[in-house]
Amino acid sequence: MIKNALDEKTIQTIKQKMSEGLLPQWVLSDPQIHELELQKIFGHTWQFLAHESELKESGSYVTRWMADDPVLVVRNSKGEIKAFLNSCTHRGTHLCTADFGNKKTFTCPYHGWSYNLDGDLIGIVAGNKVYGQEMKKDEWGLRPIPKIGIYRGMIFGNLDPHAIPLTDYLGDMKWYFDILLGRSDGGMEVRGVPQRWVAQANWKMTSENFAADPYHVQTTHRSTVEMGISPKDPLYAGYGHQVVLGHGHGINVITSATGQSAHPFQGMPESMWPMFKRNLNPEQFEILSKTTVFVGGVFPNLSFVSPVHGTEGHLHNYLNFRVWRPLGPDKVEVWCWFMIDKAAPEEYKEEAYKGYIGSFGPSGTLEQDDTEIWARVVQASKGIMARDKTLSYNNVFNYLMGFDRVEPDENFPGPGVAYPTCYLDALSRSMHEYWLEMLTRDLHIEGGENH
Ligand code: FES
Ligand SMILES: [Fe+2]
Questions:
Q1: Closest atom of ligand 1 to CA, residue 111
Q2: Rounded CA gap, 46 and 108, in Å?
Q3: For ligand 1, is residue 94 a contact (CB within 6 Å)?
């Protein structure tokens, strides 16, 4: 099946089109490509699981997914974070069926085996009577997620025991995460539980829409302009820098037309500014002071946005992290976290949460604008013309914005390749390149191997 999905000729065609700033439309809707992505990308990349503030004390747990792998994340009695496949080692049902909670032990709902917070099997119903003395409990502990990494409270897992460390994978994204997650004393905290819902969409499209496509904002979210929330200037989401980082990661650092923010420090209370100065280096502090919106992503399927909402006198900022869990080529489960500076005043946090619910929550206006578009993209990518692999109908997407035209800005103070505009497809093209690199890594192809 995998051989059929990507033979040498098809790979060469995709590469050729990508080098021209294009992407074949069929890769969005092809079930075999989806299967290959699960194995080659989701089986080997770092995926976001939870924020440490969701696991406050010993015994706190949350249940999550890494694509099709159910994951149980717990804080053990020593305070360490552990993650296991949420599948009982006896006959495989979900060990834990709740979304979150606190437990000393986990007991399986099927035959009652129980495990401690370190995943050790500690109890078997009618143990010696039915299994005999020789049943070795220590061979039947929960299966750990091969790798766990934490950066500034963000817990990631990796199914590949040979994966590079999380900090290497994040690379220069850490510098920007330091601004978003490390500017305040005590860092960020998750408020409420992550909301989740299923959308008709391809995960590549949603990741790209968030991380790399500020160009859509002035049309898709036109209603915000008409309501007077967003500026009338059609270039308004394009001011600032699009920064392309390694491993398909990137961020848009969006300012106003003047290169400054209309609202310094994203409208956060002035009392917090000295704290930002203390926690950030001068370059990071300067960027934070000027930026209106940070929006970006960590490949493959973690996106984030840190916007400003509200009206003068009632401005607020928050950090929305989201995971696009692929459920098929045309379906994602959206996981959506609201995060805010732990050190912010309580009323401010409350107001910001309401702002989030009304914009990027599942019923939020901005969210609904995007959801309809994503569904229509996959709907329009399933037919004979769109799925033709020979591309005889010219069924390719256009990623030509800024192609060969925009030079990096050497004076941008942050790491990465920073282009002096956010209306640009450089980050999308970089995501596609890494996607194809991962997809074809060690792929055994008829007539030879591709590395
Ligand atoms: S499946 Fe869990 S105890 Fe049998
Ligand atoms: Fe959008």
A1: 3
A2: 28
A3: no
> Under a CB-based contact definition with an 8 Å cutoff, are residues 166 and 68 in contact?
no
Domain boundary among 145, 162, 189: 145
Q: What CATH number corresponds to the domain at position 105?
A: 2.102.10.10
Q: Are residues 79 and 140 in the same domain?
A: yes
- Asked if residue 194 belongs to a domain, the reply is yes
Q: Is the minimum distance from the CB of 88 to ligand 1 under 6 angstroms?
A: yes
Structure-token match 């709907």, residue found: 379
Q: Is the CB of 124 under 6 A from ligand 1?
A: no
290 and 362 share one domain: yes
Domain ends where: 111, 130, 145? Answer: 145
Render pLDDT for 82-110 as a digit per residue (tens, 0 to 9). 999 999 999 999 999 999 999 999 999 99
Domain count, the chain: 2
Q: Is residue 204 part of a domain?
A: yes
Ligand 1 nearest-atom number relative to CA 113: 3
**Ligand 1 atom 1 nearest Cα:** 91
Q: Do 183 and 130 have their domain in common? A: no
CB atoms within 10 A of CB 225: 17
Q: Ligand 1: which of 88, 94, 137 to mutate, judged by most atoms within 8 Å of the beta carbon? A: 88
Whole-number Å distance between alpha carbons of 385 and 378:
13
Reply yes or no on whether the pLDDT at 449 is more than 50: no
Same structural domain, 133 and 180? no
| Ligand nearest to C-alpha 307 | 2
Check whether residue 118 and residue 188 sit in a common domain.
no
DSSP classification of residue 213: -
Q: Does any ligand 1 atom lie closer than 6 A to the CB of residue 243?
A: no
Q: Is residue 110 in contact with ligand 1, taking CB distance under 6 Å?
A: yes
Tens of pLDDT, residues 100-136: 999 999 999 999 999 999 999 999 999 888 998 788 9
Share of the chain above pLDDT 70, in %: 97
Determine the Cα angle at 425 with ends 366 and 29, to 5°.
Answer: 70
Residue pair 30/424 in contact (Cβ under 8 Å)? The answer is: no
Return d(Cα 385, Cα 381) in angstroms, integer: 8
Residue 16 placed within a domain: no
Ranking 135-139, 167-171, 246-250 by mean pLDDT, the lowest is 135-139
Residues 230 and 319 both lie in one domain: yes
Q: Which atom of ligand 1 is nearest to the CA of 112?
A: 3
Query: For residue 92, how far is its CA from the centre of ligand 1 (angstroms)?
Result: 6
Q: Which domain holds residue 375?
A: 171-438
Residues with CB under 5 A from ligand 2 (ion): 370
Ligand nearest to the CA of 93: 1
What does the pLDDT look like over 404-415, one tens digit per residue?
889 999 999 999
